[in-house]
Specification:
By secondary structure, this protein is α+β, with helices and mostly antiparallel strands. It folds into three domains: 178 residues, Porin chaperone SurA, peptide-binding domain (Triger factor/SurA peptide-binding fold), CATH 1.10.4030.10; 119 residues, Chitinase A, domain 3; 101 residues, Roll (Chitinase A, domain 3), CATH 3.10.50.40. The longest helix has 28 residues. It has a four-stranded antiparallel sheet with strand order 9-4-11-10. A four-stranded antiparallel sheet has the order 5-8-7-6. It contains 18 helices and 13 strands.
Length: 464
């Protein structure tokens, strides 16, 4: 039962995107595991591993689960599902439908188009959704049950210290120099004359495409669109009316179109667009767009720098904090609600220097902790030239992990370890209550001892 959390995660990745494997019937499938009335097929194991391999292509140190780990993950999920049903946990159909729609859209973008996806899968989108509706429901209920088991688990400072003390000193991680950095970003707005000029260009593209057809629109997108993804997708996207991911103006403009129509110029937070409706079915639509970003002039850049200069002075004299200034004035949605702070994958505000963009390294190298930079101009992928000030909050020198400097990191690991132990204890108590079957093919799996004992008891009951 070790590493329950890891195994559950490994199984979760194998639920949807191995479409080609799912679409081909396995000739010699069989039941290799069972918990209660929930069965696990040999093809489930094969497909999950194939999907993990596919998703990890190009990744360094990727973890590919073994067949034993995959089977254990499925046994765990089935047990959680049974308990969720027993505890009357529910998941709404809207939640399942929304999750299915999101996954379908992600997969369509992976394969390039709805038609290509359906051809590879050998099924329509509606058939694929039907195939995966029940597995998704199982996954959601299992996740709910797991959260219920470790809900309310806290960690005390005494427990954190005890956890840290048990770690061999030579096993403690070593951290390179780390910094706490925040930024306040302003996106200068192009003046109306420039915006009007770019808009006229887009209307010219529209006329050309209306005269010469869809292929012309695609070519214009490849030649002129400033969407960074245009090289891969020629400006084509699959939309859903209910998806919050898309800019509201872009989404609204797209769904006003009929198939074959090209929109007027639409202004979104990314710039100016024209949209071509390729196909539409209910709340789903496939569109192609051309994005142009009206360039800002030196006058707009100067205005943004002056505004940031004023804010910098106000912060330095204590009129407001950097966090307050970010909340009121920053245009960077990614960091606006974290007081402008850059954060690591673990949520820590301390990050290594290699996580900073190249334009930030130079000013940081001449600053001291506690200082705020002069306004800096840099290029942002979707916004062109933007202006920011940088707050160099603090710095940690290279060091071996310790409780004084790294308490939050250690506490987070200690909490996860406590949750892991709670989950393992729960399974040890509940496995004996389940009917369990494990195929002899997996008799040598070292991590399945508790499950095997339950299976042996189930077999004895059948013979008695």
């Amino acid at each position: 039962m070790k590493q329950v959390s890891l195994i559950v995660v490994l199984i979760a990745v194998g639920m949807f995107t191995e479409l080609t494997a799912q679409s081909k019937k396995v000739l010699a499938d069989k039941i290799v595991g069972q918990v209660g009335d929930k069965i696990i097929l040999r093809s489930d194991i094969t497909n999950a591993i194939a999907d993990a391999k596919r998703q990890s292509q190009g990744q360094e140190n990727a973890i590919i689960p073994t067949e034993c780990q995959v089977l254990e993950g499925f046994l765990i999920r089935k047990a959680l599902l049974l308990q969720a049903n027993k505890d009357s946990l529910t998941v709404s159909e809207d939640e399942i439908e929304g999750e299915l729609d999101n996954r379908i859209r992600q997969t369509i973008q992976q394969y390039g188009s709805k038609d290509v996806l359906e051809e590879i899968a050998g099924k329509s989108i509606y058939q694929l959704k039907d195939d995966f509706r029940e597995p998704f429901k199982e996954q959601k209920l299992a996740e709910q049950m797991r959260r219920k088991i470790d809900d309310g688990i806290k960690i005390t400072p005494t427990e954190v210290k005890a956890y840290y003390t048990k770690i061999p000193k030579d096993s403690l991680p070593f951290y390179e120099s780390e910094v706490e950095i925040s930024q306040l970003v302003i996106h200068p707005k192009a003046n109306k004359d420039v915006e009007e000029y770019v808009s006229k260009q887009l209307y010219d593209y529209k006329k050309q495409a209306e005269a010469l057809g869809p292929k012309k629109f695609e070519q214009l997108a490849k030649n002129y669109s400033e969407d960074p993804a245009v090289k891969e997708n020629a400006g084509q996207y699959t939309l859903n009316r209910n998806d919050k991911f898309w800019d509201p103006a872009f989404l609204s403009g797209a769904f006003r179109l009929k198939e074959g129509q090209i929109s007027n110029v639409i202004k979104s937070k990314f710039g100016l667009h024209i949209i071509y409706m390729i196909s539409r079915s209910g709340d789903e639509a496939v569109v192609r767009h051309i994005l142009r970003i009206p360039p800002v002039t030196d006058d707009e850049i100067k205005e943004a720098k002056e505004k940031l200069d004023t804010l910098r002075r106000d912060i330095q004299i204590g009129k407001m904090s950097f966090a307050e200034a970010v909340s009121k004035y920053s245009d960077d949605e990614g960091s606006k609600f974290s007081a402008g702070a850059f954060t690591g994958r673990d949520g820590s505000t301390f990050i290594s220097l290699d996580m900073l963009d190249k334009d930030m390294i130079q000013p940081i190298s001449t600053m001291k902790p506690g200082e705020i930079s002069q306004p800096q101009i840099y290029n942002e992928e979707r916004k062109g030239r933007v202006v920011r000030i940088i707050y160099y909050k603090s710095k940690k020198e290279p060091h071996r992990e310790n409780l004084k400097e790294d308490y939050n990191r250690v506490a987070q690991r200690a909490l996860e370890d406590k949750k892991q132990s709670t989950l393992e204890k729960w399974f040890k108590e509940h496995i004996p209550n389940y009917y369990v079957l494990i195929d002899k093919e997996f008799s040598n799996c070292a991590g399945l001892e508790d499950w095997r004992k339950a299976a042996e008891r189930a077999a004895q009951k059948r013979t008695n």
